[in-house]
Each structure stands twice: as C-alpha cells, then as structure tokens.
Amino acid sequence: MSYVVVLFPEHREVYLDDQSQGSNTAASGKPRALFVNVGIHTFRLGGPPDVNPPTQKVDVPERSILDPFRVEFTRC
C-alpha cells in the first residue's frame, strides 16, 4: 500500500480509476493523503475542465504517510 497526495490550487474531487476518493484537501485546507494500492492507476479531478493534464496514468510506488507520492495537476 502507498500514500498519495493529489495537488491542485483549489478544492476538487479526486477520481482514482473512475472511483471517487473524496476531496484533494482536508478541512484544514492542506493536501489530504489517499491510501492507494501500489501499481498503475489513473487519476483525474472533478469540476470544471480547467485542469492540465485532464488525466494522469501513473505507476504509484510504495510510499509512507510521511513521504507521500505526489500527483500534481495545474490550471490551464
């Protein structure tokens, strides 16, 4: 298992392999870590289509909560 944070400048719903994982941010506004199986997964964000890239297919390595794997999206 691994921990992943999905980074974007604002609150968005995270989809992992087309399944909702909830928000990319915690109530504090800080990135929220997701508990994910190691391996290849497709990430995307909900909301307006102003995200670059629209989806990301990544090979998630094993990472601890203290050093989560980062998946970053930017606004286009």
Based on the model shown, name its key terms.
single chain; 76 residues; mainly beta; Immunoglobulin-like; 4-stranded antiparallel sheet; 3-stranded mixed sheet; 9 strands; 53% strand; globular
Blueprint (SSEs and pairs):
Layout: E1 2-7, E2 13-16, E3 19-23, E4 33-36, E5 39-45, E6 51-52, E7 55-60, E8 69-72, E9 74-75
Tell me, what is the CATH class?
Answer: Mainly Beta
Structural class: mainly beta
Count of all domains: 1
Order of helices and strands: EEEEEEEEE
How far apart, in Å, are the first and last alpha carbons? 32 Å
Rg over C-alpha atoms, rounded to the nearest angstrom? 11 Å
Report the CATH architecture: Sandwich
- What profile does the largest beta sheet have? 4 strands, antiparallel
Low-confidence stretches: none
Strand portion: over 45%
The name of the CATH superfamily reads Carboxypeptidase-like, regulatory domain
Can you count the beta strands?
9
Under CATH, the topology can be stated as Immunoglobulin-like
Helix content: under 10%
How many separate helices?
A: 0
Mean pLDDT: 96
The side-by-side strand order for the widest beta sheet comes to 3-2-5-7
Q: Label the overall shape.
A: globular
Oligomer: single chain
